[in-house]
Design brief:
This protein is of the alpha+beta class. The protein has 16 helices and 25 strands. Helix content is about 30%, strand content about 25%.
Length: about 675
């Protein structure tokens, strides 16, 4: 019944929209039941008869890797994808080590728990076009997937992002799924259709943070310099690969952490199991990897008799350093400043000593983080935007970057206003509509401001050039003497000589000078060797450091986070308040992952699919958050030097909590979450 290709897989073609041969997990769709109301829909579901042949299921990565394991998707084994890095001589690196630490770490599923569940509406327009309105992060990807399912051209599908109540990566994956089903129903029926998940459906069937198991062996010499890191990663991708190749690669490319290590060997694999599958999630891969890295850093420091923060300062990436993939960092590297900033703000050394006074179970921990911005492994990336000067002197700015509560579109408007000298309130932002907004690519990878904002800047600069040219003729001055500010064009040598943007716009229209501009931005192309895993993995990195103080109740084992001192190298702060908001939100989400969130999956079935049984932090759990330390090391290839902040903010908080708990109790936790039990 699917007119196009029954395929919705992201990285690999392994996921049908509707399963007509084999189901792979509890939640796989086999049919769409359409009805005029919910009651009729339930009756329709009860009328569906399915004959199943029961097959042996695989629920753990160990089961999946057995030679005699059932092949979930056929093939030679259950490995969906592998990655590797080979940098330096690993044996020589360990031969130089005075201290060696080898441990295994495990991180679990995490549910997004966005306030608004997934939803989509589809409205047919005649017999050969459909409009889809839904909660999403990637409208042009949604268009591509819907068109593929329907067997249509892209210009037959219009996709509009609805105001979206949170996403955190999840609606990057769920958007295409929900929208494609709604569109298929609408086109088949010739009438509007809607698909809206309730909370239980959202939690039970939506993508999750990928679970991971990381075996980590690292060494450092007597001077406190890291010499070697040997890392083995196994990630449970669930029933479908989805984003697993990119998730696994990000873990691989960040395996040494934000530190210089002369020899790094990494092997990674993502394994199919018959469970709910993983997908995009804030901190994509790096939360798990940095949990392992930062635990190793503390243990190496302890073996060498060094303070954990001082040990980090000896090893952090600096300008001129090389990353896990031997990528040379020549600028925009503020890791050292972030770490020194939180050390000073928290009064690190005195606070560490004071934590042990009076017999209290208090601890102070530190962790660092780095996160590559944009796409990985040298893959191309770009963003686009458009800008129009209206007849009344106002502006209409259009972007395909989705607003999810993070403030990216507001950041774009500030960039446009700054370049054009326009009042911020004169710029109207129109969000994603594939029939009218340029393709800015997905809102993920913390690329919304760095790439989307750079496209906005390009559009503004192109329009500014025309505005200045016409204004110079109107003012009777040279173009270099035209100043745009406060919604007017001035002759800087004769400030009393000016025209309003309304007057300027009218003149441009009369003269036939285009009032519209198209902006485009792509970061520099990168070299990458897929055989060795070496090269420029990401255009640029955002760096962060966090100090955390915790107190552990000796009777109940409850961990309370008392205070957090965060810092981040953001490139250039376009709006400090938005940055602080992102960091505060990330602290809450990271606190949940570190201490309380636990998705219970039994034989492939999610048992706690609601707010009652899946516990997330509330405002009562939030610690005091010290003033955010914003470090500015501009990236020379983006508008105003800005980098992304949304995802990096969550990475270091999780590891810092784990290290603080160790300092308080002397117990090293290698599995998350850290619970009283």
């Amino acid at each position: 019944d699917i007119p196009g290709e029954n395929q919705i897989g992201y990285a690999l073609p392994d996921q049908p929209l509707l399963n007509d041969v084999k189901v792979h997990y509890v939640g796989d769709p086999i049919a769409l039941v359409c009805a005029v109301d919910e009651e009729a829909a339930f009756k329709g579901v009860e009328a569906v008869e399915v004959e199943y042949e029961e097959l042996q299921a695989v629920y753990t990565i160990d089961e999946a890797l057995r030679e005699d394991a059932p092949r979930i998707h056929g093939g030679e084994d259950n490995i969906a994808v592998t990655t590797r890095v080979r940098k330096g001589d690993i044996e020589e690196g360990f031969s130089k080590a005075e201290a060696v630490v080898e441990e295994t770490y495990e991180t679990p599923y995490q549910e997004h728990m966005y306030i608004e569940p997934e939803a989509a509406y589809a409205i047919p327009e005649g017999h050969d076009k459909v409009t889809v309105i839904g909660t999403m992060q990637s409208p042009f990807l949604v268009r591509e997937k819907v068109a593929g399912i329907l067997g249509w051209n892209l210009n037959q599908v219009r996709v509009i992002q609805a105001l979206t109540g949170g996403a955190f990566g999840g609606k990057d994956d769920m958007g295409p799924l929900v929208c494609a089903k709604a569109a298929l129903a609408a086109v088949k029926l010739g009438r509007p259709a809607a698909l809206i998940f309730d909370r239980d459906e959202s939690v039970a069937y939506s993508v999750k943070r990928y679970p991971a198991r990381i075996r980590y062996r690292s060494g450092a010499d007597a001077e406190g310099r890291r010499t070697a890191a040997e890392v083995d990663i196994t990630s449970d991708c669930g029933a479908y690969a989805n984003r697993a190749p990119f998730w696994l690669w990000r873990m691989t490319a960040h395996a040494a952490g934000p530190y210089e290590v002369e020899a790094v060997h990494v092997d990674g694999r993502a394994v199919y199991t018959n469970k709910v599958y993983g997908g995009s999630f804030r901190g994509f891969g790096d939360v798990a990897m940095h949990f392992a890295v930062e635990s190793q850093m503390d243990m190496l420091a302890e073996k060498l008799g060094l303070d954990p923060l001082e040990f980090r300062l000896k090893n952090v990436l600096r300008p001129g350093s090389k990353t896990t993939t031997a990528q040379l960092l020549d600028h925009s590297v503020g890791m050292e400043e972030c770490l020194k900033g939180v050390a000073e703000a928290s009064d690190w050394w005195n606070r560490r000593r004071a934590a042990k006074a009076g017999g209290r179970l208090r601890g102070v921990g530190v962790a660092c983080a780095h996160h590559g911005i944009s796409t990985s492994r040298g893959a191309p990336d770009w963003s686009a935007a458009s800008l129009i000067l209206n007849e009344d002197g106002t502006f209409t700015y259009r972007t395909g970057i989705c607003e999810l509560g993070q403030g990216s579109q507001f950041g774009h408007a500030k960039i446009v206003a700054e370049i054009l000298g326009a009042p911020l309130e004169s710029i109207r932002v129109e969000g994603p509509d594939t029939d009218s907004t340029p393709n800015a690519r997905p809102t993920h990878g913390s690329r919304g401001l760095m790439l989307g904002g750079s496209a906005a800047a390009d559009a503004a600069l192109r329009l500014r050039e025309r505005m200045v040219k016409v204004a110079a003729e109107m003012l009777g001055c040279d173009e270099e003497n035209v100043e745009l500010r406060d919604g007017r064009a001035y002759d800087r040598h004769r400030p009393e000589n000016s025209v309003s943007f309304r007057e300027l716009a009218r003149e441009m229209y009369i003269r036939g000078v285009s009032p519209a501009a198209y902006g485009f931005y792509a970061p520099p192309r990168r070299y990458f060797d897929p055989e060795t895993g070496l090269g420029v993995a990401y255009p640029v990195y955002t760096f962060a450091a966090t100090v955390v103080e915790v107190e552990v109740n000796p009777e109940t084992g409850e961990v309370k986070v008392l205070e957090v001192w965060p810092s981040m190298d953001v490139g250039r702060a376009i709006d400090p308040l938005l940055i602080e908001g992102q960091i505060h939100g990330a602290i809450a989400q990271g606190l949940g992952f570190a201490l309380m969130e636990h998705l219970i999956v039994d034989e492939g079935r999610v048992l706690n699919p609601n707010f009652k049984d899946y516990v997330i932090p509330s405002s009562l759990d939030m610690p005091k958050v010290s003033d955010v330390i914003i470090v500015e090391k501009p990236y020379r290839h983006s508008a105003f030097g800005a980098k992304g902040v949304g995802e990096p903010a969550i990475i270091s908080i999780v590891s810092a909590i784990a290290n603080a708990v160790y300092h308080a109790t002397g117990i090293r936790f290698r599995t998350l979450p850290i619970t009283a039990e």
